Amino acid sequence: MTVIEGSVALVTGGRRGIGGALVEELLRRGAEKVYATTRKPAPSPDQRVEVLTLDVTDDGSVAALAERAQDVDLVFNNAGVLHPAPLLTADLLLVRETFETNVFGPLRVAQAFAPVLAARGGGALVDMHSLLSWGAGAGAYGASKAALWSLTNSLRLELAAQGTQVVGVHLGFADTDMVAALPVEKVAVADVARIVLDGVERGDSEILVDDVTRAVKAALSGPVEGLGISIRR
Known about the structure:
233 residues, single chain, seven-stranded parallel sheet, alpha/beta, 7 strands, 6 helices
């Protein structure tokens, strides 16, 4: 079980979408301070929010962030990109960018902040996945989320000794700019943040935000042909 009240949190991609909602919900639950990262920072009107520059694809940027934020108790790996395209016709540069951001980025953050969390008593590392971690048909994005899911499960084992709660969050489509053009049902970002933090406070290892995600995970026990999901515009 992780206590949010009085804690210091870090949210990557924390200035809009799910990240912005997580920042607001953390503050509502009594977080003392939240570091919110972005590539193009601008000051927050809330003095409890410190906006910092971060490029998760850059080793030096992640290292500088960890050096600056040595008081963090909770880390939310939320930053990500989506370039929808079939794998056979995808631009490999965009595929590499997807994996650099969605897989290697969270790993860089986890490596940099594991010692910080250990020094603070363990804390929590929360990785934002997707139902597309399990569903087929989402190109490089789905493949990257599948890789991140595996990475999170391994980090859970590796960080257990230092008492860090490692949480994997899976959801369908939240109402964000990233998926604004997709003709799918979307979950309000405020609801996502509330459900995520409820799970973190309970001590959950995995959080399934919505019914469609629970249905897709249940389908893993069936034929692989039943895992197809389309995210084409």
